[in-house]
Amino acid sequence: MSASEGWLAAAVVPLLGLLPVLWYAATGAPSSRLVAQNLAQLLGALALLLSAQGFGRPDYLDVALVLAVLAPAGTLVYARFLGGLPPARVVRWTALVGVPSAVVPLCVAAGPGRQAVKVLVIGALLLAGALVTSGGSQSSTETEPEPEPDAEPGRDPRPRPAPAPDSPPREASPRD
Amino acid sequence: MTDVLLALALLLVAVTATAAVLNREPVRQALVLSFLGLALALLFTFVQAPDVSLSQLAVGSAVTPLMIVLTVRKVRRDAGTGPGPGPDSGPDPSANTGPAHGRSGGDGPGEGGRR
Question: Has residue A4 got a pLDDT over 80?
């Protein structure tokens, strides 16, 4: 087995990990789906990193870089709309174990240079994003200002069947 | 080994697309759709098309599910469905119900309220 075949075989591992994650994303509760989507993006970025080395094309790392930037931002946006992100230990431990075990051999294989720096940046982004999103986002959704208030009187011309609440909707989040 | 990667990515795309079709509730469907975008991006990378993969990653994995979530939020707010008046408790109660109930409860009054 040549070296590139070995890298591609290593890329199979996170791909296989995507299959049980897909089960949770397709059948779980909405909060566990959000965690599953977060974990899937982490595993996908690891597969992209390893396959870029396996194909011998360092420019494929751009895809992993874009995914590493988009994944935590997208997860936080979804958490904002779906009402909070539960803390996820599986994402944290997958990142803490998987990212160094993929990034360190890639850096050793790349040698000192621009590619190693790129791999390190992608690894740091993935790790930081996973650590931020695995801690849960209940507090961040609370402190975030509400961009579109619900009970604005001038926006909805139709009479509402539900009685208008007197309590201001900004403090009315009942979950905390 | 490339064939193994390709077969796995193809299997992932097929299973994810089927799951996205079988999920009937739009909010749940949006997250499966995001997964489908990721699986397609992986597949495009494995068939050596990283530029297509880049655009698929941005559009299919981020923008399209976000537009679905935003649309569902807007429709539910305009229809005034859901027991909770708060903006964060709007999507949750209907999302916690079953797929068929969530669809009939969320979309039926929305369509009726618009006409």
Answer: yes
Q: Is residue A150 part of a domain?
A: no
Q: Provide the residue range defining the domain that includes A21.
A: 3-143
CA distance A155 to A153: 6
Number of domains in chain A: 1
pTM above 0.90, yes or no: no
Whole-number Å distance between alpha carbons of A137 and A25: 19
Rounded CA separation A46/A35 (Å):
17
Cβ-based contacts of B92 with chain A (< 8 Å): 30, 82-83
Q: Where are the domains of chain B?
A: 2-106
CB atoms B85 and A40 under 8 Å: no
Half-sphere exposure of A165 (CA within 13 A, CB side): 15
Other CB atoms closer than 10 Å to residue A152's CB: what's the count?
9
Query: Which residue from B minimizes the CA distance to A51?
Result: B46
Interface test with B, best of A50, A78, A122, A146 (most B CBs within 10 A): A78
Q: How confident is the model at residue B14 (pLDDT cuts 50, 70, 90)?
A: very high
Mean pLDDT calculated for residue range B89-115: 42
**Residue A129 corresponds to which tokens in the numbers above?**
């994003």
Q: If contacts are CB pairs under 8 Å, which of residues 110-149 in chain A contact chain B?
A: 141, 146, 148-149
pLDDT bucket at B24, cuts 50 / 70 / 90: confident
Check CB contact under 8 Å for B89 and A162. no
pLDDT for B81 equals 57
Q: Residue B115: which of B78, B81, B83, B90 has the closest Cα? A: B78
A148 occurs within a structural domain: no
